[in-house]
Amino acid sequence: MQLDKNVETIGEVELVAFMQGPLADGSGLLIDARTEEWHERGTIPGSINIPFNQLNPEQGADELTLEDALARLGVRETEKGRGFSAAKQLVLWCNGPWCGQSPTAIKGLLSVGYPPGKIKYYRGGMQLWRIFGLPVVSPDGRLLDN
After folding, report:
1. 61 pLDDT above the threshold of 90
2. Does residue 27 contact residue 89 with C-beta atoms inside 8 Å?
3. Where do the structural domains in the chain lie, given as residue ranges?
């Protein structure tokens, strides 16, 4: 249930609140941490796709790929290394409670110093999102049948 004592695991109600708050005002990002093939099958509205292996050095993310992904999250290079002062609030999700993609991404973010208080984990993922009949969209934003 909990990946790290400092990373909050959330449910659907908290995710919708995040979508209406930090995601809507631009201070947060909703990250579909699944591979591109999974993302193409449908995603949670407002999500951006950053596959888990691009956020975790132990999964093969080279320095350039990792830095590019971190820049999308608001991390900036400073004279002293990575600067997290402008880092966005994040919710990461994947296929469901059985899937290890978003947990792997979160562990990778923590390993490079991303502030754990700015990361949330939607454990239910696409599996529970669909079970509850919530909207699913294609990567270009078209509403898909559940």
Report:
1. no
2. yes
3. 8-129
Written as one letter, the residue type at 125 is G
Q: What letter does residue 87 receive in the DSSP assignment?
A: P
∠ Cα 60 36 32 (to 5°): 90
Q: Does the pLDDT of residue 69 top 80, yes or no?
A: yes
Other beta carbons less than 10 A from residue 110's beta carbon: 17
CATH number for the domain running over 8-129: 3.40.250.10
Distance CA 84, CA 20 (A): 23
For residue 137, the surrounding DSSP H or E stretch is strand 136-137
Q: Cα–Cα distance between 140 and 62 in angstroms, integer?
A: 28
3 state SS of 77: strand
Model pTM score: 0.94
- Six-digit token pair at 79? 């004279």
The amino acid present at 81, given as its one-letter code, is G
Residue owning tokens 């991390």? 75
